[in-house]
Amino acid sequence: MNARANTFSRRTQLQLWIGAGLATMTGGCTTPKSDPALERLEFEQAQMGLPFRIVLYAARKAEANAAASAAFARVAELNHIFSDYEDDSELSLLSRSAGSGRAVPLSDELWRLLNIAQAMSRRSEGAFDITVGPLVQVWRRARRQRELPTPEVIAEAKARVGWQKIVLDSKARTAKLSVPGMRLDFGSIAKGRALDEALRVLREHHIHRALVTGGGDMAIGDPPPSRAGWRIELAPLDAPGTPPVHFLSLRNCGFATSGDLFQHVELGGKRYSHIVDPRTGWAMTDHSLVTVIARDSVTANSLSTTTCVVGPERGLALVNKTAGASARVVRKPAEQVEVAESPTFTNFLEK
Questions:
Q1: CB within 8 Å of 69: residues ≥ 6 apart
Q2: Which 8-state DSSP code applies to residue 65?
Q3: Which of 209, 234, 168, 256 is nearest to 33 (CA)?
Q4: pLDDT tens, 268-283?
């Protein structure tokens, strides 16, 4: 743990600087009253294979320590449910039942997130799909070996992918994976759920002015004392002609970013993202950066991933139909950088 000034920096999927906001958010929000008794404290732990960071304001360090420890413990608990790396996680055990014909009873937590994922699959017509695991493995291997997978390999993996191949029984709260070799991958939303839950635990411990980050995504609570919001500076797309840096002022929301800024590989002269289109089996080649603000991090995560897959027009249409959500897409499909935004996105920009 360490106490620091009102800004800090780190690099994950994106480069983000987070500090006390300097501008009042639009939409009738008022600036919170100052509370000089609160001290800014930071905590960091490795969770879900990446650094999770908590920044909070508290009157007593002992109270802050207890709250942060409880929040990290909750993240670890969720990782044991959602991880596709841990062999004994609940998700891995469910994946191993694929093709057995057996309906597997699920914990409340896995049942809840699985239903959220399936709802997004329906909304996106399969562009969002947690059964994408076999294809994710193919492209992980491609990045590691720096060798483009063959169409035959992709076709074989794709035969084991499809959100309709999950059979849910709402009365028994069970799931059945109907095709052998299916593998679920919650990478697009499990982190969001962990961030949301970490923030909820902090609030249970009476810590309301807090922000939790993991891999460039955030769950954001009440703002720092005397500020309208947490100040977020977004790294630009790494391409000539990118628009100037933008600052956001955010509070009580989820925040997610998706794109190929840091996770990509060049094969055969083409740049392939770590994001895979489950409908085609191929990794995305669109050089883009998607930012989504939503009511919670799970929603922000699912929308940002989906927008990367379907592109700005369909992605923003989906975002705009989601209550409380806004998005910005910066991409370079050819020689020119293009920017598209939700009508409400400018409400979060510093003035």
A1: none
A2: H
A3: 209
A4: 777 788 889 999 999 9
Nearest Cα to Cα of residue 339 among 244, 233, 247: 244
Residue 213: CB partners within 8 Å, gap ≥ 6?
10, 12, 16, 18, 52, 53, 55, 195
Q: Please state the pTM of the whole predicted model.
A: 0.88
Q: Is 270 exposed, middle or buried (0-12, 13-18, 19+ CB in 10 A)?
A: exposed
Question: What are the residues whose beta carbons fall under 8 Å from the beta carbon of 180, sequence distance 6 or more?
Answer: 98, 99, 160
Residue-wise pLDDT tens digits, 102-115: 999 999 999 999 99
Give me the pLDDT at residue 271, please: 77
SS (H, E, C) 116-136: HHHHHHHHCCCCCCHHHHHHH
The reported pLDDT for the residue numbered 8 is 31
Answer yes or no: are the C-beta atoms of 236 and 339 closer than 8 Å: no
Beta strands in the chain (DSSP E): 7-11, 15-20, 39-47, 50-58, 104-105, 166-169, 174-177, 210-214, 217-220, 230-234, 246-250, 253-259, 264-267, 270-273, 288-294, 326-331, 338-341
When pLDDT is cut at 50, 70 and 90, the band that residue 255 belongs to is very high
